[in-house]
Design brief:
hydrolase, Phosphoglycerate_Mutase, Putative fructose-2,6-bisphosphatase TIGAR A, mainly alpha
């Protein structure tokens, strides 16, 4: 199970929840890519994500490694 990586809202100490659909920050993208490298040999049969932009960006980063 993964949480989405850092967003600018996280970095600024702000809450975002469902009302604010922010994207991953550069650090968040790097975190997702690092997770992808760590899991590069794991085969996933299913991936379930929230409809939030930041959550949808993580599997794309996992696949790109």
């Amino acid at each position: 199970m993964f949480c989405s990586g850092e967003t600018q809202y996280n970095k600024d100490g702000l809450l975002q929840g469902q009302a604010i659909d922010s994207s991953l920050s550069e650090t968040g993208r790097q975190q997702a890519e690092a997770a992808g490298r760590y899991l590069q040999d794991v085969q996933f049969s299913n991936v379930f994500v929230s409809d939030m932009l930041r959550a949808r960006q993580v599997p794309l980063r996992l696949q790109s490694t």
